[in-house]
Write a structure and sequence with these properties.
alpha/beta, 7 helices, seven-stranded parallel beta sheet, 28% helix, two-stranded antiparallel sheet
Length: 247
């Protein structure tokens, strides 16, 4: 397991980007081979929080890790988040913070939203990007319970809607979805999943494993008990002790 530390300097972004290269090129073939490789990445605080109270968005990534994230996005076919992240963060899910500038629309990864009841707003930034021709058409993954009228509204706003299988709790079945996304017309080979907590938990606890590469950014900050925690499934507690040294 690798865990780089990047100093805050002009060369630190280059170091962050180069760190990813061997990890990505050495990705094992997915199992089964009929699904894409899955890269799970997220940022958390020292106390394992990925969002603030009420799912308020937090800036937990520094310049280097944000640059690394956008570089990683540029190497993937699709970027996937749950609808909770869609509603709280209004993400663009594209590769724009690159040394050479944003990727052209045709080279951008496909935004994928796990949205069983189609709660994504028509004003979402990723839909605005698609309408403006600066981003790919977002794929909203819904359930059979989704309102047909709502589906039509989102399709007219520029989204593509894919009806997928769900479990008894109404959540999208990820193995079946990934296999469908590997097949035509999408043909995705590498999907990057960025959250939120429900999706992260589902991926990390799934048997057999669905994640081929895990990248966690740990911000040097504490959020507190009111924040949204990532899944608590890593076994025994790790104790971190430090001594404050004043300059």
């Amino acid at each position: 397991m690798s865990s780089p530390s990047f100093a805050s300097s002009s060369s630190s972004l280059d170091a962050a980007l180069s760190f990813l290269s061997p990890l990505l090129t050495a990705l094992p073939a997915p199992h089964p081979p009929t699904r894409p490789s899955v890269v799970l990445t997220y940022a958390q605080s020292l106390d394992t929080r990925i969002a603030g109270a009420g799912r308020r968005q937090l800036r937990l990534s520094g310049r280097e890790s944000m640059g690394m994230t956008h570089r990683l996005r540029s190497l993937c076919d699709g970027i996937c988040v749950g609808v909770g992240t869609m509603l709280s963060d209004d993400p663009q899910l594209n590769a724009r913070d690159l040394p050479s500038g944003p990727l052209p629309a045709r080279a951008q990864p496909i935004p994928i939203i796990l949205d069983p009841t189609l709660r994504t707003p028509t004003s979402a930034k990723l839909l605005q990007n698609a309408r403006a021709g600066t981003g790919r058409t977002p794929l909203l993954v819904s359930s059979a319970a989704a309102d047909p009228a709502r589906r039509k509204t989102l399709e007219e706003a520029g989204a593509e809607v894919l009806e997928a299988e769900t479990d008894r709790r109404g959540r999208i079945k990820l193995p079946e979805l990934f296999e469908r996304l590997a097949a035509p017309p999408w043909g995705l080979t590498r999907i990057m999943v960025e959250g939120g907590s429900t999706v992260i938990r589902a991926l990390l606890t799934h048997e057999p494993p669905l994640v081929d590469l895990l990248i966690v950014t740990i911000a040097p900050t504490l959020v507190g008990a009111e924040g949204v925690p990532v899944a608590k499934i890593f076994g025994q507690d790790a104790v971190i002790a430090c001594r404050i040294v004043k300059p």
